[in-house]
Amino acid sequence: MVKAAVLHHYGEPLAIEELDLAAPRFGEVKVKMKAAGLCHSDWHVVQGQLPLPLPLVLGHEGAGIVEEVGEGVTSVQAGDHVVLNWVPSCGRCPYCRLGRPDLCEAAARLTATGTLPDGTTRFSLGGKPVYQFLTAGAFSERTIVPEQAAIPIRRDVPFELAALISCSVMTGVGAVIHAARVRPGSTVAVIGAGGVGFNIIQGAALAGAKQIIAIDIVEEKLTMTKTFGATHTVNAGDEDAVSAVLDLTDGLGVDYAFEAIGRPETMADAYNMTRKAGMTVIVGIAAPHETVEINAFSLPSQAKTLTGVWLGQGNPPVDYPKLLDLYAAGKLKLEPLISAVYALEQINDGFAALKSGQNIRGLIRFEE
Ligand code: APR
Ligand code: ZN
Ligand code: ZN
């Protein structure tokens, strides 16, 4: 039996349940979770914005220790420290072969089914299947994932910091470095200073941006963005974010604008605050039925690049260790990203704090 936070019905609090967990099968790995972050993507699911099979073990930003491996597993062994990779790419589909494992079709199917590659999960409750979010199911004392979803890491980084690498750091820093390829001396705006947005800000600082404008509605967090490299802040609750960014850039707009909330309105704002021939990068995830309104004439006449990014366009087996090395070298800040630590039983308090925007990152710490 394992204790896990389970979503039974959209819009309801998560229930702490004792689930049965079967042994890992061929190619699967059992991970004893040590820490897991509360990400807005989990919250999108709780609210019913990303419809998935229920009941579902949420959580995808996590780190732990390999406890047991199934037959055929070669890349990790019991005792290894691992970070969960929520896009376990197959290596064989057209996108993997193109060198874009972030867009792997097999991994996208697993996201939709909430299962492991064989179409089932090892979690069950009263004999009925329980699904797992993004192949991870990180809000559980133990989880079973495909080998590709357990990335071995250096042992000298605490699990709570390593967990952040899995989603918010990979997504934010990767959006800057892989997707936008921000050049030194650039101007950057970031809408949404949450776990992901703070990492876009520190990624932009790492890339040598000269001006980094952080936009949020929570003043205390805006103040903190300065320690991550923001040069200016805009409180979108007090003033129009697009006008404020135009004012700060001599009316031009920024070279790169990132949206890290997941709202169509702020996605349009990001586009509208990008200069001609600049780049807009959508990082936030809106519900599948939503659309963004963009002026049609501006598409040819302003020649902006509008793109999006999933998993920071990363390749976790390469990028997770690299990001941890950057932390160890003092080039990435991880400790100050953690605003609050919760026990698994307090997870609904953590989501309430996420909803109000008060945390940069809230984290579940698993008991020994
Ligand atoms: N204008 C500006 N900022 C806003 C607004 C708004 N209208 N509404 C909310 N915010 C801010 C919140 O105050 C918060 O700081 O957006 C931030 C969102 O942060 P988190 O909830 O921590 O979200 P995060 O986990 O960073 O994810 C952001 O990226 O990966 C995706 O699914 C994820 O869509 C989500 C996005
Ligand atoms: Zn996430
Ligand atoms: Zn693939």
Automatic annotation (TrEMBL):
<dbReference type="InterPro" id="IPR013149">
    <property type="entry name" value="ADH-like_C"/>
</dbReference>
<dbReference type="Pfam" id="PF08240">
    <property type="entry name" value="ADH_N"/>
</dbReference>
<comment type="similarity">
    <text>Belongs to the zinc-containing alcohol dehydrogenase family.</text>
</comment>
<keyword id="KW-0479">Metal-binding</keyword>
<keyword id="KW-0560">Oxidoreductase</keyword>
<dbReference type="Pfam" id="PF00107">
    <property type="entry name" value="ADH_zinc_N"/>
</dbReference>
<dbReference type="InterPro" id="IPR013154">
    <property type="entry name" value="ADH-like_N"/>
</dbReference>
<dbReference type="GO" id="GO:0016491">
    <property type="term" value="F:oxidoreductase activity"/>
</dbReference>
<dbReference type="InterPro" id="IPR036291">
    <property type="entry name" value="NAD(P)-bd_dom_sf"/>
</dbReference>
<keyword id="KW-0862">Zinc</keyword>
<feature type="domain" description="Enoyl reductase (ER)">
    <location>
        <begin position="11"/>
        <end position="364"/>
    </location>
</feature>
<dbReference type="InterPro" id="IPR002328">
    <property type="entry name" value="ADH_Zn_CS"/>
</dbReference>
<dbReference type="InterPro" id="IPR011032">
    <property type="entry name" value="GroES-like_sf"/>
</dbReference>
<dbReference type="InterPro" id="IPR020843">
    <property type="entry name" value="ER"/>
</dbReference>
<keyword id="KW-0520">NAD</keyword>
<protein>
    <submittedName>
        <fullName>NDMA-dependent alcohol dehydrogenase</fullName>
        <ecNumber>1.1.99.36</ecNumber>
    </submittedName>
</protein>
